[in-house]
Amino acid sequence: MKAKLLGLASALAILTAAGGAHAETVLLSMKGPGAGNPFWAAVEAGAKEKAAELGVELVVLAPPTESDVQAQIAQVEDQLVKNIDAMAIAPTDPNALGPIVDQAIQQGVGVVFVDTKGINDGVTFIGTNNEVGAALAADFICKNIDKGSDVAILQGIITQSTGKARADGAKKGLTDCGLNVV
Length: 182
What we know:
- By secondary structure, the chain is α/β, with parallel strands linked by helices.
- It has six helices and seven strands; from the N terminus they run H-E-H-E-H-E-H-E-E-H-E-H-E.
- The protein has two domains: about 1-125, Rossmann fold (3-Layer(aba) Sandwich), CATH 3.40.50.2300; about 130-180, Response regulator (Rossmann fold), CATH 3.40.50.2300.
- The two termini are about 35 Å apart.
């Protein structure tokens, strides 16, 4: 349900960023294929629902894997040539996607970041506070295992700001309560 709401909020935000009801074509550029990830599948469903309600064409694209930065850049470049009006993007690598996001902004494309915050100034970010979320998970762990226990943090793709924020929040929460992060 939360992911569906995020999809709806994303659609509203990108339409607002693109000039409200004047937007005709919106790109939702996700980090990974929606069908393979329940979160992204829900975001896609919510965005499609809102786009249909507003009569907006929604183009949903994702690289073959969450780590395929060049594929995402190529997809965005292709859509910019097709003159999209707005773009909601979850950058696979915020630093690598920065220049293409700047290009979109210079072309007058309304841009919002979804789930993963990019490096570009003045772009709205819609997502959760991953550091706080990880700290809450750490708090749960701390309450359920003995102080002084060894714990490990398994991390995903390290270039993604969401993964870094989750690791930072988890490490702080786990060490603050007396667990040993190994």
